[in-house]
Amino acid sequence: MKRILLKLSGEALAGDKKTGFDEATCMDVARQVKVLADRGLQISIVIGGGNFWRGRTSENMERTKADQIGMLATVMNCIYVADAFRTAGLETEVFTPFVCGSFTELFSKDKAVKAMEDGKIAFFAGGTGHPYFSTDTATALRAVEIEADAILLAKSIDGVYDSDPAVNPDAKKYDTISLDDVLDQKLAVVDLTATIMCLENKMPLAVFGLNEPDSIADLLKGKFNGTYVTVK
Ligand code: UDP
């Protein structure tokens, strides 16, 4: 792999607090990403917004407004994590699909690829810039646009299971599964729009648990303990 897109959920950044940021968690992610960057991997990052905002507060709220707040939450997350990366000695650039004044750069494929080629970590904040999408969709879209070799999906769960292990103690974890099977079996690896986008554009994923020590740093060491989601 030469170029990857790492997706972190917003909640993963909050640690046990479930909301806001846990500094130690973010610094540990930064340390691990630096291990990959030091090996010459080109790295981009998408972060969710769940540590700040989860959809509408009530049915009275308009969906588009709730989604705009969600997208802004992802901008806050990227600004915070990019700063944690700076502390860890990494250079970063935060891109958004809409203008955020001087806080971020307006996304373009060329600028993002140039940043990564220059050794910077490219953050894709603000989702797709459109309501009714998710950061999963933004992950699939950006990965395809920047011609990433794979999406690395860091989750609170350590891979893809045939049923929810929190509900079914006999749930079986896959070492490998195809995107076709993910779709057929309606497995919630990423949401449906993102699944189809990965399928159509032959974008593989590696799904793993963020909570396991060094799970990001070990990715290139052949110590992978999660699930490979393959394309035909
Ligand atoms: N969002 C959106 N369009 C996008 C990406 C995100 O409207 O292209 C909004 C949506 O409301 C979503 C929120 O931003 O609920 C945060 O993203 P997500 O729920 O994917 O975050 P995660 O659950 O991964 O922390």
TrEMBL record:
It is found in: Cytoplasm. UMP binds at residues 49, 67, 128-135. GO terms for molecular function: UMP kinase activity. Keywords: ATP-binding, Cytoplasm, Kinase, Nucleotide-binding, Pyrimidine biosynthesis, Transferase. InterPro entries: AceGlu_kinase-like_sf (IPR036393), Asp/Glu/Uridylate_kinase (IPR001048), Uridylate_kinase (IPR011817), Uridylate_kinase_bac (IPR015963). ATP binds at residues 7-10, 50, 54, 161, 164. It comes from the Bacteria. Residues 2-208 form the Aspartate/glutamate/uridylate kinase domain. Inhibited by UTP. Pathway: Pyrimidine metabolism; CTP biosynthesis via de novo pathway; UDP from UMP (UMPK route): step 1/1. It catalyses: UMP + ATP = UDP + ADP. The keyword Hydrolase does not apply. Its EC number is 2.7.4.22. Homohexamer. Belongs to the UMP kinase family. This is Uridylate kinase. It comes from Anaerostipes hominis. The gene is pyrH.
